[in-house]
Every structure is written in C-alpha cells, then in structure tokens.
Probable dual-specificity RNA methyltransferase RlmN
Amino acid sequence: MALIKRLIMKSLYAKGPAELVKILKLEKSYQAKQIYSWLIKGVTDYSLMSDVSKKIRDRLTEEFPSVISSKIVKTQKADSATKLLIELHDGALVECVMLRDGDDRKTACISSQVGCAMGCSFCKTGTMGLVRNLEDYEIVEQMVHLRTLAEDITHIVFMGMGEPLHNFGPLMSAISEFHRPEGFNISMRRMTISTSGLVPGINKLTELNLGIRLAVSLVSANNDLRSRIMKVNRSYPLTELKRALIGFQHVAGKRITLEYCMLHGVNTTKEAAKELSSFTKGLMCVVNLIPWNPIDELEYESPTNTEIREFTKELDSLHINYTLRMPKGRSISGACGQLATSTKR
C-alpha cells in the first residue's frame, strides 16, 4: 500500500486537515492540523515539523515522500515585482509574479494553465497554445513559493498564464484552499479572477456567488475589432458578454473591472472611447487602462504618451470611470501579457 501511495501522491497541497487525516492515515485530527500548519508555512521536510512526533515523521517520510510537486528554477527581480519560474512534476513550466504596492499590499499573480487556448493576439502566453490545465495543488503551490518572498501576501489575482475560467474545477478548489481560515485565510474580496470573456464561466461564477471579484479583458468595445484581436469574441460577442456581466453584477453586487490594453493606433481613438462609453452604460465598473507591454514576437506597439493623454481626455469628457495602470515587472517580462515559457526546461 505504501508503495502505491508513493507512486500516485504528487503533492499534499490543496488538501485540508480533514483530508490529510485520511490520506496520511493519521489517528488524531490534531496531527493533521499540525502538519497542515507546517505546509502552509512552506515547510515540506517532515524532519522540520518539530511538533509532530518522530514516529509519525519517520513513517510519512517513508510512505509519502512527495510533499510538494514543483520547484523554483529561476527568480527575476525588479523594483516592484519578482517573477518566479516554476518547474512542475512533469517538467512543464509556469510563471507567477509577486507585485508590491507600497508596504501594505503584496499581490500574488498566479497562473491557471500551462499556455492558453484563447489566442489573444496581444498576449505572449497566447502564442504557446494550451499545453495543459494545472491541477489544484499546482495552483496552490505557486502561492507557497511566492510566500518565500513575502509571507504577508494580502491579495491574489488570477492573471498569470492561462484563462482561469477554462480550468474551472481546479480553480475553484484552489480558491477554496486560499480562503480556508486555518490556512492562507485570504478573503474572497481580495481575490480577483481575470477572464478574456468566457461567458459560460462567468455564468457559473454568478451561480456560485462566492463574493470574489471579477475582471474582464475587454480591449475593445467594437465587436468586429474585438473579434480580430481576441478569438473568444467570435464565440461570445459583446452583447452576450455584457448580458453575463450584468447578471454577475446583479447577484454579486460588486464593481467589475474592465481591463483595456491600449494598443498604438488600434483602440485609442475618439470613436473607440465612444464605443467604450456605450458598453459601460448599465454596468457598475471601472476601466483599467493598461498601456501594452512590449513583446518582441508580436507586431503591436505601446501607445505614445500623447496618445494616452488624448484618450484619457476623451474618457473624461464622456464621464467614464477609469484608472491608468503604471507598468510593473516590465523589465523582467513579468507585466500584463508578457508571461510565457518554453514547454519544458
């Protein structure tokens, strides 16, 4: 039996104390709580779990040697961001980023897939295609690795590699683990799911009504242009997307973020601003303007300062609620749209 467990158990993460009792064949629930507490702290060596009896530690080392399935293989730092390259158990690679905003806010930007099937033309991850979905423990382990940089992570955004709502089950399992009071204890209102506009996934979120925040990569409020830039719009056009967002907002009662990646000469015109104004009517939202972060393989350009200034002036005249995001992690290719890896090391 121990041999079978050694072969199939890749990770003890994304499992609460009650599950650990059964998996690790423990006699007392408090033993699982002790082990779980160490796991949350990032301790993956049984010998360091000082309040667990030596007898249990020795048995677990023999029967369940695989505590964590992934490892950090590269770290890149900038002033306000640190990017980790994570190697998974099968050699596949994902990236996650720690974003710092002052002393009080530290945000974990986490991936949900290796690659992405959405194929958004401005995003480097989209050039990879979808390699595979991440398991729930692979999502959780990114948080464990990032906590080695800053234990007091305050927020989580699912804005790394992949379309989160395209990997719905493992995503929900990981969110439950992040929210567990005796674990990471991250409030639902401090977690944000970012989607390209996968309407069925938005509708599922509406049904669950978790209290989590939602961000949508809009990029253009012109249906034809958005279909050219983002393939997802061909399946779920703007009318369907807006209907889903209104439904989510009606249930959740939360402001939605519309992410607007600004592309030089593409979506920064007066007409684009008017179309954006029309789309936002009836929505409680903020438009997050993100100047496109350069990617060598793609032919887009970042907007000029003048272009940004003129576009925001137009938004002001239309009374559109917006923020202008300053790029973080651009120098280490850790900014919005820049995450991508080779398939394997």
